[in-house]
Each structure stands twice: as C-alpha cells, then as structure tokens.
Amino acid sequence: MRNKNWILVSILLLLSLSVYAQGVDESAAASRYEAYAGKTSMGPNIVASTSWVGAIVEAAGAEKVLVLAPIELRHPPEYDFSPQDIMQASKADLVFWAGYEGFVRNLIQAAEIPETDLVKVNTNNAPPQLIDSVKSVAQLLGTTEKFEQWQKIIENLDNRLTQGALNLQTHTTKAAVQFHQQAFAQYLGYDIIAVFGPQEMTMNDLSAIDSANPDIIIDNWHSPQGQSLQKEGRSYVQLINFPGPYETRTLFDVLNYNGKILGILP
Q: Which superfamily does CATH assign the domain made up of 46-123 to?
C-alpha cells in the first residue's frame, strides 16, 4: 500500500513540474518577442560582431549585448569564430554586424541565422553619422528615450571637437589619411591631400604621398600602413575605431582619445 501511494505521489509531482515548466517557457517566449515593441521590460538577446558594433548598440540603449570578437584583438574583423560563438549566435534574437566582417558571413551559415535576425549598422565615428547609426538601432529596439539621453552627451562632445578643430585651424593642415580614418578627418576639417589603403601600398604610392608633402599622417591603429611616411617636421598619429585599446570601452572614449591624440581636445 505504501508503495502504491508513493508511486501516485511521484506521478502527481512530475505532472505539476511539467505544467510549471510549460508556463515558464510560454512566459519566456512572450518576453523574448514582445520586447521588440517595448511591451515588456526585458530586451532582446543581442549578439554583436565587434566592440565597435557593440558600442553602437549599447549607445542605442540595449542592455544585454554579447560581443563576439575579443576586445583585445588589434583588428577584430579578422576574428575566427568558435563553436561557442555558433551556439550563442543561434540563440540570439538579433545579430548586429557592419557588413565587412568575414567571420560573420561564415557564422551566419554555420549557425543558420535567418535574414530577419540580422541587422547591419553603419560604423563611422564622425559624430553626425554616428548619431544616425545609433538612432536607427534605437528605433528598432524601441529605446528612443535612452538614445535621446545619449544624444545630448554626444552633441556636447561634437561641439567640443568642432571648436577644437577651429582653434587648431585644421583646414590649413595638409593630411594624408588612412582609408578607415578618412570620414573622421573630413569631419574635423583637415585638408586631405591623399588617402592611402586599405590595399597594400606600392613604392610609387608612398613616393607620391611623400612628394605631396603632407603636414600630418593620420594612420589607423588597427591596420597601420603609413609608418614609413614619418619624417622630421611631419606629424604622425594612429587613431582608433574599435573600443578596446588604451582603456577605451565606449564611443565617447574613442572620440575623446582620438581628439586628444590630434591635439584637438585638451
């Protein structure tokens, strides 16, 4: 008799646990998909390709962002994804990338990520374009209030950068600029007389740039190509795009670092 009662109790216990688990799954599923429209306090599970893309998504107001490429990498787009990345990407609600990361193209196939879960963002650190990129992500996530708070800070930094460029008279400074820093140099008003990269430069390329006698070489820290153009009396700097180096973590950190390296910000 005792054995029969024990069996009955065990069956009832298993049934109750099953019902409870089903209820939790339904709730989790509702939270997962309704979050896009801002119907719940839970945001979507987001994966970002690199620290640059991740910083843009976080600036838009996302709270749970997993960045795939390690922040320590000098050139994050060259990252080679791991089996764990496949699992994480396959479980994500949204996967953000910039479109040029080769490892993401392969990851999309390996993790069987549907096109509807992919979001491409424009990575450009010139503040006006950066604001547009962050705004578009915020509109998708329904986090425009958080974006507006971020926008006030970036606009203040924008004013400081443009005023600093005026004070430094960057329009009178002839610059040779690495391709991936071109947009930021244009934003600051430099007189860009040459753009080099991203393809490997030849001796003729180097000679032509040197003959143009730029005042400054603005190189890209993540893939530097202009070191041989350094000479006495000519400035040489390496700017960053991806947060990570020199203790940078946010877009504000990156812009402040670059402004200081150029002598535009104190």
A: Nitrogenase molybdenum iron protein domain (3.40.50.1980)
Measured distance CA(231)–CA(173) in Å, rounded: 16
Question: How far apart (Å, rounded) are the C-alpha atoms in residues 152 and 47?
Answer: 26
* 52-83 CB burial, b ≥16 within 10 A, e <16: bbbbbbbbbbbeebebbbeeebeebbebebee
pLDDT in tens, the chain (266 residues): 444 444 333 433 343 333 333 333 333 333 334 445 444 456 799 999 999 999 999 999 999 899 999 999 999 999 999 999 999 999 999 999 999 999 999 999 999 999 999 999 999 999 999 999 999 999 999 999 999 999 999 999 999 999 999 999 999 999 999 999 999 999 999 999 999 999 999 999 999 999 999 999 999 999 999 999 999 999 999 999 999 999 999 999 999 999 999 999 99
Separation CA 257–CA 6 (nearest Å): 69
Domain ranges of the chain: 2-37, 46-123, 149-261
Contacts 24+ apart (CB under 8 A), 64-72: 66/92, 68/103, 68/104, 68/107, 69/101, 69/103, 71/242, 71/243, 71/244, 72/244
Phi, psi of 46 (to 5 degrees): -115, 135
Q: Which of these, 71, 68, 48, 74, lies nearest to 60 by C-alpha position?
A: 48
